[in-house]
Amino acid sequence: MAGAEMLVHWLRPAEKVAQLVVERRGWDHVETALANPKPILFVSPHLGAIEACGIHLAMRIPRQLAALYRPPKIKVLEPLMLASRDRENGLAAPANAKGVRLLLKTLKAGQTAYMLPDQAPGAGDGVWAPFFGQPAYTMTLLPKLARQFDATVLMCFAERLTWGRGYRMHVVPLPALSGEPVADATTVNAAIEDLIARAPAQYLWSYNRYKRPAGAPKPGEENA
């Protein structure tokens, strides 16, 4: 279902996709954040309709939205994906040094960014933190960006409604971060778990969240 709707969302006019979000819960947090000059960091895991969530934000937020992405495994799909994510206020940023610099520039300008927090980072770019009771190598980039730019961090996802009725957007503020990498990664993972609990059947459980990246230490060995 996720693969089929992704292609539809890439090909359909952006405003048509944005209109598929027929209900929004917690949108007042977005409005409060927009009333503040601080940048906003939207964080959406592999849950629900990822493309619809990002497109709705790009169409409804009066700021530039830089979205960090990893190229699809099917290379021929990348131009299509980029054409979709670069529409309106959207700006696709590859998950490499160039893309991170683009994210930094966007947040420094007081704009907005969109990230998936449950992708396994490369060695040295993460720490081990619990995720549903098991250690998962979790990115440190998100907390670093939030602290560096004093950004408002909003967790979000677009829940699929039954019978093709569209999507329900959920927006929840991320609890305060401490500045300690493992504690912050634990906070982020707990927030992801809370979102998943709202629609557990719509999480991409097939994604290997618990893999150990090449060169990364074993759980509990970071300080060994």
From TrEMBL:
Spans through the membrane: none
Pfam families registered for this protein in UniProt: Lip_A_acyltrans (PF03279)
GO molecular function per UniProt: acyltransferase activity
InterPro entries, sorted: LipA_acyltrans
Main location: membrane
Subcellular location: Cell inner membrane
Keywords assigned: Acyltransferase, Cell inner membrane, Cell membrane, Membrane, Transferase
PANTHER family registered for this protein in UniProt: LIPID A BIOSYNTHESIS LAUROYL ACYLTRANSFERASE, PHOSPHATIDYLINOSITOL MANNOSIDE ACYLTRANSFERASE
Protein name as catalogued: Acyltransferase
Organism whose genome encodes this protein: Jeongeupia chitinilytica
